[in-house]
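Project standup — Tuesday

K.O.: blocked on the structure for the chain from last sprint. Re-posting the sequence here as requested.
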Amino acid sequence: MKTSDFYYDLPQEQIAQTPIEPRDHSRLMVLHRDSDKIDHKHFYDIIDYLNEGDCLIVNDSRVIPARIYGYKEDTGAKIEFLLLKQLSGNRWETLVKPGRKAKIGTRFIFGDGLLKAEVKDIIDDGNRIVEMSCEENIFTTLDKIGQMPLPPYITEKLEDQERYQTVYAHELGSAAAPTAGLHFTNELLDRIRAKGVNIGYVTLHVGLGTFRPVKVDDVTKHKMHSEHYEIPVETAELIKATKAAGKRVIAVGTTSCRTLESVAAEYGEIKACDGYTDIFIYPGFEFKVLDGLITNFHLPESTLIMLVSAFYGYEKTMKAYDIAVKEKYRFFSFGDAMALL
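H.V.: unblocked you, prediction finished:
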């Protein structure tokens, strides 16, 4: 398949700039996998499509306020850092703008001296390995001086930083939100549990690779960035019990999906483990775990629309996207959702 096969026309005004309030009042397109039926609902209606004994698997990764602005220690020249991945302690892989100012050994100051950084290495893709130093815990310091690393297509200022976190976000480490989960409220989750639907947690720290465009014509030649995941014992046991009972495992978001399918592909089953995954899911992929997927509407020609096409079928997916454009759904991180069930 060609990357261009996954292109669709999207009017600029349908790229959501701000989140809907309340969270669960966004729209929901329900796609029935066993037919061509499509329902147009609101996200709080998701409960009507979940059955007792089903389980939802959500990604509890929390976004770091990883965009920081500072200056070069010797010249005062302005600099922007985007912390991508914690490597060990206070050593991070970092995207630096402008990169020409960040040679090995260069030192920078952020937050009036609350945080200092020195470039230790430059890696293949131009990112920097940077050693941070601060008096407090690095995450405490970032909470004070950092900004949410919103995707480039969001140009409006985010008034409430928590709106770019899921209500169950817990494990610090992401450079972007697992956005399918942004639609859930605590009240909706309580109602879902009361119906007998179980909720399990995995962690996959989302890297900026999730926004990187596919730059090759042949889809199969694209290389994914590696991201860290963890499946705890309770979640592994929940998934096994759900499958054994003949009920559905429904992933909330492509990150939860990739975590589960990565582990099943590597070990032949779901088990408690952690590691790194660079799994790339595109049409032709054989799903071993998923029975359903809740996700947002993704960028044209992105690896995420390819994943949805693998699960729902290429032609049906592209048709659904055309319908979503005509029906004026809101797209991308702060946009509406689809459920493939």
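K.O.: great, moving the ticket to review. The mean pLDDT is 96. Helices lie at 138-145, 186-194, 233-244, 254-267, 303-312, 314-326.
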